[in-house]
Each structure stands twice: as structure tokens, then as C-alpha cells.
Amino acid sequence: MLEIYNNDSITIIEDLKDFITVIFVIVDDIYQEVTPTYIKNRRNSNHSIMTDSEIITVSLAGELMSIDSENAWVEYCKKNLKELFPSFCSRTRFNRTRRALYKTIELIRHNLTKLIRCNYDFFRIVDSMPIYACKFGRARFHKTYRSYAAYGKCASKKETFYGFKLHSLITFDGYITDFTLTSANIDDREALWDLTNNINCITVLGDKGYIGDDICSDLSKERNINLISMKRNNSKSQLPKQLRQQIFKKRRLIETVNSQLSEQLNIARVLAKSRLGLLARLETKILAHNICCFINKVLRKSTDILKIKQLIFG
């Protein structure tokens, strides 16, 4: 159990340094608990200038500050956060270590979800959002993700794009419990199988992109998952009006979450130069969002866990 639970003073976060300190305590406590020994005691780890927990913390804070340039963020930390990080490694070392810690960041995210007990919620909302590999006009010349990216359509923005889709499951509070990345041409319904790979006995609310009698019956039989999707306007069997209103109300949450991921965490922009770098960035951004929700819900006892900007900028 996190020691931070027993610290009442942690509910007061006055500035960026306080916020980064809180993040570090959460990350380091979970890191010590879930990280395999072979990663902690890897070769030359005792000669490292920064610990793994410090590098993860700096990465999370940079994402939440909406700073896309890793070089600019590292230079800012060296000049302005010397009290917290007296010794700072080079930018290249920082980048290599963060990418190497991709699976560790994933373990921390899963453990945080268990701590906040969101994995026990019986209701989730599912949606997808575009991740652009490059601008549409440059797609034919793009080489970095040629083996993984594809052309796809975003119904909400009414556009064709080149890149990936981020599929996510969130609770009715707005906490992201699961996500998966696919090529942009993958159907949302197919991705739902990956999203619910380790989940059963829940009800999932989806938009019109998840319509389909086959997937509803298959999910129900194989995983005891009840998928409820909005009906098309010309459908003969419409959902009851009261249920439609409740679905619309709850689905606004995932639009808020996607907006935060896109605008504050810049998740739709791909600056990584490798698939591992892309996955590491996505894991970091999702964990950053989840840690803010964790601080709001568990430490600050707030009913609105999506007040993320207030934590950082006051």
C-alpha cells in the first residue's frame, strides 16, 4: 500500500515542485513493488545518474506540462528543478532509459488502476480517437511507420487520415482502465476484443461504430460482456428514450477525456521515431492522465477527478 495514503498534507499542492514531488512518491512506491528484480539490478544501474523513478516522474510531468520537445523539457528541468533533481543525465540517456522502461511504466499503470479499484467497475465507456503519423499530404512519402500505419476515417471529424487509432475503455468517473493501439484501418469492433482481453462481466457503452449483432452476441457468450451501442437514426429497433439520454450523458465523459489527451497531452501528435518510442510515449501520457485522476480521487477526495489543469497550473 502506498505510504502517501497516510499523508494528509499531500492534499495541498501549491506549485509545480509540490506536484512533481507527489508524482515521484506515487511512482517510486509502485515501482519498488511491481518492477522485476532483473530490471532494478540490471548492469551498471548502480552507476546511473538518475533513478528509474526519477526518469519516469520527469517524463510524466513533461507530458502534463504540454511540452512536446523532450530536449526543451530536459533543459528546463536542469535549470529550474535543481532542488528536486541535483544531478541530471544527458537527453540521449534520458530518452533511451525511458524507452527501455516502457513495460515498467505499463506495470505501474496497471497497479495504479488496482489501487484506485477502477478495475472492479461494472460499467465502461468505449471509444477511439485518431493518432496522426503525419499530415495527410505527406502520407505517401512517410517512411517511419510504413509497416504499421494505414489510412483510416474519423467519423466525428469527418476526415480521412494516415496513422493509427487509439481505442480506450474508461469508467463513469473518467479513469482510463485499458487502451490499445491499432492501424487506422482496423474496425473499432475488432479492437474491442483486445481491449477486453482480460475483462469479463461488465457493461460497455459504445457509439454507432460498435453496432453489430454478431459482436454483441459473441462478447456476451465468450466474456459475459454486455455491449450497448447507439442505434442508427433509420433503425427500426431504437433504444428507450431514457436509456438514450443516459448514454449520451455518460458518453460526454469520454469526449472530455479524449479532449484532455489531445489538447493537453498532445497524444494525437506522433513525434517518436520508432514503434517502441511511440508505445513508450503513449504509455507515459495515459499514466500521466491516470495519476492526476488518482490524486484527485484518492488524495484530494474530489468528486470530479478530471480536473487536471487545476492540479498543475492552479
Topology (elements, then pairings):
Layout: H1 16-34, H2 37-40, H3 52-64, H4 70-80, H5 91-100, H6 102-115, E1 123-132, E2 150-154, E3 159-170, E4 176-183, H7 188-195, E5 203-206, H8 213-223, E6 226-229, H9 241-263, H10 275-299, H11 309-313
Parallel strand pairs: 1-5, 5-6
Antiparallel strand pairs: 1-3, 2-3, 3-4
Helix pairs in contact: 1-3, 1-6, 3-10, 6-10
Domain Transposase DDE: 123-267
Protein name: Transposase DDE domain protein
InterPro entries: Tnp_DDE_dom
Compact description:
This protein has 314 residues and is an alpha/beta fold. It folds into 2 domains: 3-114 and 308-313, no CATH class; 121-270, Nucleotidyltransferase, domain 5.
Describe the fold and architecture.
The structure is a single chain. The chain has 11 helices and 6 strands. It is an alpha/beta fold and 314 residues long. The chain folds into 2 domains: 118 residues, no CATH class; 150 residues, Nucleotidyltransferase, domain 5 (2-Layer Sandwich). Helix 3 packs across helix 10 and helix 6 packs parallel to helix 10. Strands 1, 2, 3, 4, 5 and 6 form a 6-stranded mixed β-sheet that branches. This is Transposase DDE domain protein. It comes from Clostridium luticellarii. Pfam families: DDE_Tnp_1_3.
